[in-house]
């Protein structure tokens, strides 16, 4: 393990992504909404100051949005994913030891003058990507989380060399890995702060919190128990699921949606050089409307051999829809799950497989993927996905694909 672990966290990441390509949003209140423009999933600091909570339904915020001129955006996951990739690539310029923890967080192994490195890292990420980050540095992951919390509220960089004072002021419920239920139990035992938890006897911790609790306490003591995960485990499944922008009743539209999700999932496993052996399709009505007839079901299709080409996976998914569909229901959501994933290079072909035909399909998929990467997702698609797609989730306020679609590139005049 390196002597220091840094946690790099992108500040208000979705909002920051929107600001990169629209500088007019700087210092303005901005929110980003969830799928179907339902709830707030990202807030600028200006919005946080107004007291608007995470997860607030947007329909309840109409008056505040108007009163404070809050800028509202639909989620643009393609943009956020691309900028996340650029941030992570920038971090790799400073150290090969990078664990991508989430779309906007990464743990790094550092050594040397970590204060100077963290400061330079923060400045470089801002300059190269436009994304502001906070950097917390400490001997363990748990303490790095604490340091990052301090950095976010101060200068943007915090090296936690003597954590006792900080832990004494930190409520135990704010520690990484402490949920509400465990926090309540600790309070009942008189443990209110992170420092108090750190100083508890390990035998008591093992009895009350198990092995996970022992690791947490050891981490608070500066003993690293959570090594950097530099080789993520192979993907075990791939799921594409979305709520519809409006209720779907016709099987034709349901098939379009499922075909779209299956094609997107197929593209993902091809990107990861995998093949799927099982296709699962699920559909459901709106469980939040109990007055309406309810129906939820799933179907599993076992493929003769693992595949990743769009045609095979879409056709398997459509067969599942034929079996699942029941008339008389208003469907709210559907999804496609690919499982039994295996490396594409080591899949054993069937004795009677047409290898020449398979090679043609693989070449076609490479061409489709190349065109969609170059000109944007959906440039080339399976006809079964439909044209108008009136069922798609609402994204009325989505920003352009500034970095992933040629037609949306900004022009410098």
Structural account:
The protein is an alpha+beta fold. The strands form 3 sheets. Strands 5-6-1-7-8 form a 5-stranded mixed sheet. Strands 9, 10, 11, 12 and 13 form a 5-stranded antiparallel sheet that branches. A 3-stranded mixed sheet has the order 3-2-4. Strand 5 (98-102) and strand 6 (105-110) form a beta hairpin. It has 3 domains: 6-138, 3-Layer(aba) Sandwich (MutS, DNA mismatch repair protein, domain I), CATH 3.40.1170; 162-220, 5' to 3' exonuclease, C-terminal subdomain (DNA polymerase, domain 1, Orthogonal Bundle), CATH 1.10.150; 238-385, Dna Ligase, domain 1 (2-Layer Sandwich), CATH 3.30.1490.100. The chain has 13 helices and 13 strands. Helix 4 (77-91) packs antiparallel against helix 5.
Per CATH, the architecture of the largest domain is 2-Layer Sandwich
N-end to C-end Cα span = 49 Å
- CATH fold type of the largest domain: Dna Ligase, domain 1
Round the Cα radius of gyration to an integer and report it. 24 Å
Please work out how many helical segments DSSP would assign.
13
What is the CATH superfamily label of the largest domain? Answer: DNA polymerase, Y-family, little finger domain
Q: How many β-strand stretches? A: 13
Q: What helical percentage do the residues reach? A: 25-40%
Structural class: alpha+beta
Secondary-structure element order, N to C:
EHEEHHEHEEHEHEHHHHEHEEHEEH
The residue-averaged pLDDT reads: 91
**What is the overall silhouette?**
globular
Strand order of the largest sheet: 5-6-1-7-8
Spans where pLDDT lies below 50 across 5 or more residues: none
Report the major sheet.
5 strands, mixed
CATH level 1 class label of the largest domain: Alpha Beta
Number of domains: 3
Residue fraction in strands:
15-25%
């Amino acid at each position: 393990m390196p002597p220091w672990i840094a946690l790099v966290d992108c500040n208000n990441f979705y909002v920051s992504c929107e600001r990169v390509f629209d500088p007019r949003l700087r210092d303005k209140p901005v929110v980003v909404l969830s799928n179907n423009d339902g709830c707030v999933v990202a807030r600028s600091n200006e919005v946080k100051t107004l007291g608007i909570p995470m997860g607030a339904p947007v329909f309840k915020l109409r008056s505040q949005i108007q009163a404070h001129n809050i800028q509202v955006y639909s989620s643009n996951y393609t943009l956020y994913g691309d900028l996340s990739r650029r941030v992570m690539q920038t971090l790799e310029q400073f150290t090969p030891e990078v664990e991508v923890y989430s779309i906007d967080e990464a743990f790094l192994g550092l050594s040397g003058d970590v204060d100077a490195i963290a400061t330079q890292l923060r400045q470089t990420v801002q300059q190269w990507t436009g994304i502001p980050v906070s950097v917390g540095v400490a001997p363990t992951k748990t303490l790095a989380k604490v340091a990052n919390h301090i950095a976010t509220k101060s200068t943007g960089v915090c090296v936690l060399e003597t954590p006792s004072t900080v832990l004494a002021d930190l409520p135990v419920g704010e520690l990484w890995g402490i949920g509400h239920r465990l926090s309540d139990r600790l309070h009942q035992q008189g443990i209110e702060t992170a420092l108090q938890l750190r100083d508890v006897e390990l035998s008591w911790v093992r009895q009350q919190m198990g092995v996970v609790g022992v690791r947490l306490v050891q981490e608070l003591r500066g003993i690293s128990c959570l090594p950097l995960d530099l080789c993520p485990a192979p993907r075990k499944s791939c799921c594409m699921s979305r709520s519809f922008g409006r209720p779907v009743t016709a099987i034709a539209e349901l098939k379009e949606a499922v075909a779209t999700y299956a094609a997107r999932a197929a593209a993902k496993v091809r990107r990861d050089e995998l093949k799927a052996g099982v296709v699962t399709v699920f559909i459901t009505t709106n469980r939040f409307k109990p007055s309406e007839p309810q129906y939820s079901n799933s179907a599993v299709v076992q493929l003769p051999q693992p595949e990743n080409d769009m045609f095979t996976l879409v056709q398997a998914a459509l067969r599942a829809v034929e079996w699942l569909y029941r008339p008389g229901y208003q469907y709210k959501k559907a999804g496609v799950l690919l499982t039994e994933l295996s490396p594409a290079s080591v899949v054993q072909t069937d004795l009677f497989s047409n290898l020449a035909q398979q090679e043609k399909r693989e070449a076609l998929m490479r061409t489709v993927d190349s065109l969609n990467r170059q000109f944007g997702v959906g440039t080339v698609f399976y006809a079964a996905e439909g044209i108008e797609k009136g069922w798609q989730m609402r994204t009325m306020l989505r920003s352009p694909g500034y970095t992933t679609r040629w037609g949306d590139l900004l022009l410098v005049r």
